[in-house]
Design a protein that fits this description.
single chain; 151 residues; alpha+beta; five-stranded antiparallel β-sheet; 4 helices; 8 strands; 16% helix
Length: 151
């Protein structure tokens, strides 16, 4: 299948953003229509952190596993919901080392109110509160270990 066909397939995913960045400098090589809708200023050649500002804290590239894959869950203001970020290394157009990143809206969370949004790192046994209701905002910067939360 040609790259053009893949792009057509990726553009019909209404709730999933997909973008491809160079491995060496994180410049955008490709993005589908869902990413363009969330970040109208996106264009090939721009660095992903310049276009998708505020997403670096939960970037799935920050903690790729030995297999080169990673998934993380976070709230995205750009996409307006809780999203799953999935990353994997690829060879773009058969010669450019790159990463493909999927931003998958988690629709099952729509309608729920979150008192806290957490970032959990199971390998380090850490949990960080990223966002809370104003009533409990004093806890925003307090660190926890994951085991303590489950107790």
């Amino acid at each position: 299948m040609e790259a053009k066909n893949y792009k057509q397939i990726l553009d019909i995913l209404p709730e999933t953003g997909v973008y491809v960045i160079r491995k060496d400098d994180h410049r955008l090589l490709y993005f589908n229509q869902r990413v363009k809708k969330a970040a109208p200023e996106a264009s090939p050649g721009l660095i992903c952190s310049d276009v998708l500002s505020g997403s670096c804290e939960s970037c799935p590239l920050a903690s790729l596993g030995e297999d080169g894959l990673n998934r993380t869950l976070c709230y995205s203001e750009r996409f307006g919901s809780v999203v799953e970020l999935a990353a994997a290394p690829i060879l773009w157009e058969n010669d450019i080392p790159a990463y493909v990143i999927a931003v998958i809206s988690r629709m099952e969370t729509v309608g729920y109110t979150f008192r806290k949004i957490l970032q959990i790192d199971l390998e380090k046994d850490e949990c960080k509160v990223l966002r809370t209701d104003p009533v409990i905002s004093r806890m925003e910067t307090v660190g926890y270990t994951f085991r303590k939360i489950l107790q």
